[in-house]
Structure formats: structure tokens, C-alpha cells
Design brief:
The protein is mostly helical. It folds into 2 domains: 2-115, no CATH class; 121-146, no CATH class. The protein contains 4 helices and no strands. The chain has helices at 2-64, 74-80, 97-110, 133-142. It is rod-shaped. Residues 121-128 have low confidence and may be disordered.
Length: 146
């Protein structure tokens, strides 16, 4: 009877060991699979972060090169348009020209020193190629340019 009892104990031990091994293998497989998903998640997050940086840079260029932004001095544009996303529609992703124009106009009113001098004739009222001071004033008043 002792041999039967010993065999029964060994059979019970093997039976008990097998589910643990199977359970351990399943847990190990699950852990490996979870680790693979975590790696893929980190890669996707890194790719998303890189795309966010690229989108922000592209939007900044779009805003700074827009028609409305041309009324702000080039040297000040980088400081003025620090958050270009505010000028884009959240749903469509398109540039909201009206919002940008209003911002630029408000900035030109409150900080005129940031206004671009594009289109300003700096020679207006100055002597024109030997024509004399009178001709210079005439061109300033009459709008004549050589």
C-alpha cells in the first residue's frame, strides 16, 4: 500500500505541477505580448510627438507668410506669432484669416513700432537725383515719383 500511496502522491504532485507550468507559460506569454504592445505604444507616442512638432512648425510658417502677417515687421514676427495654433480652425484645420487679420490690426494699433514699413516710400520728401528741394516737395505733395 505504501507504493500505491507513493505513486498517488507523485501523480498528485505531477498533476499539480502541470497546471502551474501551463499557467506560468500562459502568464509569460501574456507578459511578452503586453511588453510588445507597450513597445508599440511608445513608438506610436514618439511618432505622434514628432508629428506635433512638425505640424506646429508648418503652421508657424503658414501664419508668418500669410498676407496679414506682412503688415508686421519681419524681425518681430517670431516674437508675435508664438502660438500659431490660435489662428487655425479646430474642426477643419484651416487658417482663419479673419481671426489673424483682427489680431494683426489690434497689434498694429497697440504696438505701432511692430508695424511693417512695407509699401512706405522712405524717399518721399527727400531730394530726388539733383532735382532740388522744390521738386522733392512737389513729388511729396503731388505723389510723383521718378
Amino acid at each position: 500500500m505504501t507504493t500505491d500511496a507513493n505513486e498517488a502522491v507523485q501523480d498528485d504532485a505531477q498533476t499539480a505541477a502541470e497546471p502551474d507550468d501551463t499557467k506560468h507559460a500562459a502568464e509569460s506569454k501574456g507578459n511578452n505580448e503586453a511588453a510588445r504592445y507597450r513597445v508599440r505604444l511608445r513608438e506610436a507616442e514618439a511618432q505622434r510627438d514628432a508629428l506635433v512638432v512638425q505640424l506646429s512648425a508648418a503652421r508657424s510658417q503658414i501664419v508668418q507668410n500669410s498676407t496679414a502677417a506682412q503688415y508686421i515687421d519681419k524681425r518681430a514676427r517670431g516674437d508675435v506669432f508664438t502660438d500659431p495654433d490660435q489662428f487655425f480652425d479646430e474642426e477643419s484645420g484651416n487658417l482663419d484669416e479673419v481671426k489673424l487679420r483682427e489680431f494683426v490690426e489690434g497689434l498694429r494699433q497697440s504696438k505701432p513700432y511692430m508695424a511693417s514699413n512695407a509699401g512706405v516710400d522712405h524717399n518721399l520728401g527727400r531730394e530726388q537725383s539733383g532735382a532740388g528741394l522744390a521738386a522733392s516737395f512737389e513729388s511729396a505733395i503731388m505723389g510723383k515719383h521718378e
